Amino acid sequence: MSSPDISVRNLWKVFGPGGEKIPKDPGLSALSSAELLERTGCNAAVRDMNFDVAKGEVFVVMGLSGSGKSTLIRCLTRLIEPTSGSVLVDGKDVMQAGTGELRELRRRKMSMVFQHFGLLPHRTVLDNVSYGLQIRGAAKNERYARSREIIELVGLKGYEQHFPDQLSGGMQQRVGLGRALAGDPDTILFDEPFSALDPLIRRDMQAEVIRLHKEMGKTMVFVTHDLSEALKLGDRILIMRNGETVQCGTGDDLVGSPADKYIADFVSEVPRADVLTLKWITDPVALGTPGDAPVLSAGTIIRDAIPTVMNSSCPVLVEDSGKITGQIDRDSILSVIRSTEVAA
Amino acid sequence: MSTLVRDRAPVQTGLVSVRAPRKRLSRRTLLLGGAGVVWLVGFLFLHGTATLTLPASELTDLHRSLNQFNAWVASNRADNPVFQYVFTPLRAAVDAVANLFIGVFAASTTGLRLPEIGWLGTVALLSWIALAVGNARVALLTAAAFVFFGLQGLFTEAAYTFALVLTAVLFTLALGIPLGVLAGVYGRVAKVITPVLDFMQTLPTFVYLAPLALIFLIGPASAVIATVIYAAPPVIRLTAHGIRCIPENTREASDSLGTTGWQRLVTLQLPLARRTIVMGINQSTMAALSMVTIAALIAAPGLGQVVIRALQSLDVGTAVNAGLSIVLLAIVLDRVTTAASRRAEPGANRRRRISRRMRYILLAVSFLVVLVTVQLSRTMLWAAAFPKDLNIGPAFVSGVSSASEWLQTNLYLFTVSFREAVTNGILNPFQSLLTETPFYLLVAVIVVAAFALGGWKLAAVTATCLAVIIYLGLWSDAMVTLAGTLVATAVVMVLGVIFGVAMGRSDKVDQLMRPMLDAGQTMPAFVYLVPFLGLFGATRFTAIIAGIIYAAPVAIKITADGIAAISPTVMEAAVSSGSTPWQVITKVQLPMARQSLALAANQGLIYVLAMVVVGALVGAGGLGYDVVAGFVQSSLFGKGLAAGLAIVFLGILLDRMTQAAAANPVRKVPSAKSPAH
Asked: Are B622 and B611 in contact (CB under 8 A)?
């Protein structure tokens, strides 16, 4: 993995009068959100957040409503002005950027896709997609040519002259996606982009994002409140609560070893066999296991291991980077599936 | 914490919310009731003393010094630097533009006193403009209306009025739209200008005229300037509103792409606000027409002058004829600007029936036709001045006059007995209650009432307003105006509740009434006087009826909107618990729409006051009479100016008191500390 694309250090956003004093005050910054609100009338939406996003990674920020995730993602391009801390993009601190630099950042480096699309109702699909290019001064021919490519890429060919209110929600969000892609940014920020869509469309759009990520390899920061979406899309997931990081890791980590009861509750309904890999259920190699038993990688998803285990008359060995780390058998797989059923 | 919970409780259930304010009202009711009793008792024993009556022709020292000020302005106009460098150039500039349009459409000052483009050219040009900004329908309407003005024998007058409206609207937009954009973009600007606009809009049209005539002399310039002052608030407000009300997510999306402030304004805010801005232009245009007609009082030429002269000589036929063309001009201006605002709707050109290119070709071709007619109207006499033998005006005038006479003689029983019954039964007793109570007693009663409604602050404002009215020496006249205003407003509120409830409860009634109310609101104030003059003759009563008709649409619409805004769930709950329609109205809808009712009363009062003042033209006394007399007789100038000021302070007083009555229940609930239950 190359050097991080975005790194966030000690980031605070405190809403309310006198909020700028709170991060510096050790007495106040240690208070819980409720106490802080009562004591100062300020609301700390983002509290001392630290994380890195690698180039080409899909980084998901997940939390319930009010956890501060939307505020956090807006702090990255200072759509909401952070109270303190730093946001390094390609090693440069966004917090130190002047108006012009910030504008350049928004125009060329980071685009955003919004929950409620934020399309311009008086412009056609073509003009919406080319809006960002127009803003940064691209000539008409150039921006239309580029926009037509993008429109095809997001699957809207033939709708160039339609207006947003003539499109379905899913198609509108494709326009939003196209607008973000048109400027060819390094990073795309998604703020709950599919929450306003119905479930079937949402699945399509998730597939679309996965496809685009594979094709274009952009860094993505994706905010959602939907755990299954987070697990489906995220290389890594950061779980937020009350403005703070609760846990940050791969989906596998979160489900396999939740950091606290909050996360455990959160992930309790996830079908574990679909998410966990074999490493979480590996037992020590038993004496009777034959040496020529089938071998699976520790990174295999449990559900994918089922056929092999079922077809094998003996336990299956698990290897991790060339070394046998243990074994699994039908019982260990069934117990994972059972625990999910019970929880559900 | 516990107070928070207790205060929230009444909001949750309808039953408690009705009961809780009633308990809290008790102190307020006690104060109001006590003040009422003291007033009545005081009136019984002291009436006729300390009434501060001032006969119509008498002046106070203040009035005389205002007269001297008038004389001073007249003699120093030429060499006072403020006039030399500010007012006189301004006046010259406005006059130049106004005279340009007057010269084009109405009458040029040279030669035959024919306009640059005669009636045919005017009709063609204006219809073409209507076609370009609107559609073919409004273009036809424009053509028909202007030809009709010709048939009425009022083409030149209508052209004068149109030229003045055009001048005023151009100045209004040049001033109002940039100001509105500033107010929309910068919250601070909005904060500064909003109270100024509020104040400007509570003033009756009448009161602008005298001070402006003093500074800018009578004639087109002061008429245009008065009109700009009166017509600017709507377009400023709506432009600011349109700019400010861009959906947050759209604005954020545009910011996220790195727009500069200017780019945001040009690519996002202005296009999205376009419709609202054009609606503002519509409202400002209607306000401008209203003011231009009234500016006839300071010698603005046009239809208004015909009406006013006819009103003063009680010539109902001529007044109706000219009033009709004002109404028609109002309809044309309203339709054309409304069509323009439809065209400005986002996506409007998507639904077009003909392609944009076709439209441009059509416009270009029809413009050639316009040029030909303009040329014709500059060369041919028949196309320059409207043919006299097509003038059906005089026939119409005499027809209306005899119809009016017939009505007044044959409906004598109905009209006169109705008028006398209301005048003697309600108006006179109420008026004498106000005018014959000793002023100190009435001031005390009003201030106590203000205290009960809005606390010390309101009491102080009220006391100040009353003190100013007394200082102006017009207490008794102000009470006459107040009496008429209050009686008319009471009727307006009854109408507002009846029709508002009917409209709020039934979509059908709403659809039926709303266009009529909308039309009613666009008419200039004083054309309302004309039909009632025909029915009831020149009396105070006529002015009050006209005021009621003028103010009722606003009150009805606000009430209807308040009732329609009640959540359907609440209504369903009320019906499902077995309430009769009457119970739903009295126990749910009216109490819940109380805020709107108070607002309706507030707006109703402002409208009625404006009309009762204008009603001086048909015999209403009071402050309006003083103002009109001030225009006519220079010895009464000071008194008229003082009366204008008194109207302003009366307006502020009524506005603040009704606003406090409207705001009170809401403000009181969260601040109540006493354990109410």
From this structure: no
